[in-house]
Design brief:
The protein is built from twelve helices and ten strands. The chain folds into two domains: about 150 residues, Rossmann fold, CATH 3.40.50; about 100 residues, no CATH class. With about 270 residues, the chain is an alpha/beta fold. A six-stranded parallel sheet has the order 3-2-1-8-9-10, sandwiched between helices. The chain binds 2'-O-acetyl adenosine-5-diphosphoribose (OAD).
């Protein structure tokens, strides 16, 4: 865990910042019950990215191992549908009362907005946003609708024809309708980044004077380049992660503990658990 002088140093950087970008990855939502990708219990351990992280891999899995695809879809939708913001999301939202904050997230779970953050760039898209094959916005799903879908998906995994059941269940999110193919606006391997979020995020990372990176392994590009771009323009960098860190200050530990402590230390704003 962090020592008090490291926390004081981070709090000073936050208190004196003008424009903050909070850059988040799967670790910020771990305490909301959503698995990360690369930790020991990570998502890619159970579902190897070669088979599940691209549209091509998913189609092949659907054809050859339909039950596995049903399990994968449930593993993605289930935890996100059931999740609620944790203390880290709430602390990030609370920072806005004292400083200008933009959240740039690789997550597709909608938890920053639900916690109250007002400017959120979802650079890998959102599981709640449904778009046409050409990427045109069609509609938003609610978490409640997703939860309903997750319950049905749980049963589809056990069905005689798991692929047929899964496809029928996810039709509001992915399928073919009167207007052609529709799908969730999520970025898989090989896809372009989600726009306009990505262009805006790049601009904001170049302009900020402090970046706080939370729960990112920093191995997926081009997102991994954002902290480097911010630093190249003179921004300070705080990293929050129990396992690895860098930048000017590393606060080791879980985001749900560190972020409320940081906000309290910087602004005297006591966060409730
Ligand atoms: P990873 O799973 O690669 O990394 C999660 C990071 O969170 C690790 O550094 C963990 O140490 C840290 N972590 C775990 N628990 C934490 C906690 N309670 N508090 C703070 N940190 C914690 O996830 P990402 O870096 O988000 O992209 O992965 C990036 C991209 O890889 C994802 O957006 C996804 C994936 O493939 C696509 O699918 C395009």
């Amino acid at each position: 865990m962090y020592d008090p002088s490291t926390m004081a140093q981070a709090a000073r950087l936050l208190r004196t910042a003008r424009e903050v970008v909070v850059f988040t990855g799967a670790g910020v939502s771990a305490e909301s019950g959503i698995p990360t990708f690369r930790d020991d219990q990570g998502f890619w351990r159970e579902f190897p990215p070669e088979q599940f992280a691209s549209w091509r891999g998913l189609v092949q899995t659907a054809l050859w191992r339909p039950r596995r695809l049903a399990e994968f879809v449930y593993a993605v939708v289930g935890p996100i549908a059931a999740a609620q913001p944790n203390a880290a999301h709430r602390a990030i939202a609370a920072m806005e009362q004292d400083v200008a904050v933009t959240v740039v997230t690789q997550n597709i779970d909608g938890l920053h907005q639900q916690a109250g953050s007002t400017i959120v760039r979802e650079i890998h898209g959102s599981l709640f946003e449904v778009v046409s094959q050409q990427g045109k916005f069609l509609h938003l799903l609610s978490r409640r609708e997703l939860l309903h879908m997750a319950k049905k998906l749980n049963r589809a995994r056990e069905a005689w024809f798991p692929l047929a059941h899964t496809l029928a269940t996810v039709r509001p999110l992915l399928g073919v309708g009167r207007r052609g193919i529709h799908r969730p606006k999520i970025v898989l391997f090989g896809d372009a980044m989600a726009e306009p979020a990505w262009s805006l995020a790049q601009e904001e990372c170049r302009q900020c004077d402090l970046m706080i990176q939370v729960g990112c392994s920093g191995v997926v590009w081009p997102a991994a380049g954002l902290p480097l771009e911010a630093q190249a323009q003179g921004a300070k960098l705080i990293t929050i992660d129990p396992h690895e860190g860098g930048g000017d200050v590393w606060l080791p530990g879980p985001a749900g503990v560190i972020l409320p402590a940081l906000v309290e230390s910087a602004f005297g704003r006591r966060m409730e658990g």
